[in-house]
Automatic annotation (TrEMBL):
GO MF annotation terms: transferase activity
Pfam family, one: GCV_T
Source taxonomy: Bacteria, Pseudomonadati, Pseudomonadota, Alphaproteobacteria, Hyphomicrobiales
UniProt protein name: Aminomethyl transferase family protein
UniProt keyword list: Transferase
Domain of life: Bacteria
Binding, substrate: 214
Residue stretches making up the GCVT N-terminal domain: 56-290
Keyword Metal-binding: no
InterPro entries in UniProt: GcvT/YgfZ/DmdA, GcvT/YgfZ_C, GcvT_C, GCVT_N, TrmE/GcvT-like
Coiled-coil positions: none
Domain spans labelled Aminomethyltransferase C-terminal: 312-396
Amino acid sequence: MNQMPKLSSARLTAQSHFRTLRLGTPFQPRIDALMKTNDWYDWGGYRAPASLWDEELEYFAIRSQAALFDISPMVKYRIEGPDGEDFLNRVTLRDVAKLKSGRVHYTAWCDDEGYVLDDGTLFRLAPDRFRLCCQERHLPWLLDSAIGFDVSVLEETEAVAGLALQGPTSVAVLREAGFAGVERLKVFDLAEFPHEGGRVTISRTGFTGDLGYELFAPAELALSLWDRLWKAGELRGIRAIGYTALNRARLEAGLIVANADFVTAEHAIRPDRVRMPDEIGLGFMVDLEKGHFNGRRAIAQARAKGSMRHVLVGLEIEGNIPAEHAIVYHKQKKEVGLVSAAIWSPMAKRNIALASLSRPYGDTITDDLWVEIYAMRELRYERLMKRARIVPRPFIKLDRRTASPPADF
């Protein structure tokens, strides 16, 4: 009788430890060399840094210097063909006909019931060539939706490396790196620049609410692009950062994250967890004049009937203890919602949060709101009820984000 070979204890340990593959991005050698904290997280199967050296100082690098963040794990689709515009108009909320070549817009897409599948950025690289960037993978859905359109859809996540360069000195770094004319880009503009015999696409976009840019290049040019920026930024205070710092900045900017501030329709298990665009602050995207698109009928009916069940709001909370995942109450008694993200904002000098509330709370009833916070004090948790008030988003607004041309620090 055949016997299974015995494995050594060392091999058993190796096989049972970290069974899930952690992919490396094209920039991984540079990030690994800078990693001091060994603080990693899983971003779509990639080993991504939550912080590299000091999460507090990484945040301040965004706000006072130039911060470099690897966005290569972001899912990227190349969509091209004569029917590219019509196809994207069919699946996304905004009118793609209004998106000119060399421009980017923030958009979202829904299922047939009008519930948000994801949000992301759409780059119009040419009249019939687009790049769609998002959090989740949607290739089967996009391919099914493309039936009948003269269009090709290809995922290019691994083939295209991406960097976010954010902060007040970001434009100075790009100019020092030799990207001549980059200062002429206005918010949501994009342009191509030569690099090492290839091309780099640079857009004036970002997830920080600050002056910033995103760069996309073929994966084989990634390390030389990183080195070019790093050398140019030596005297401009360039720093590599992780997601924790970026998350603080995006919250100050009032920006939402899929499956953090709302559950996408494909991930939701319970039917009351899904959200329509109006329920998460994306109602401004919905263009009912452009013709049919996924979820159009359901969204229009919900608006006509006034049947939206939720609203996402910005909160300012008394005190300085972040209220992340705190329950929101009306008159300290009735549970009306939940905080999805919260920080003490160094820029706004306020305790801020994003919260999803059940209507009419946050809609017609906006007063006497409270959050329940459990704070650790001398090795014991204390229950604190803190008053909260609804405030506009973004929580901070920096003039340098939209200045044209931006200041050259």
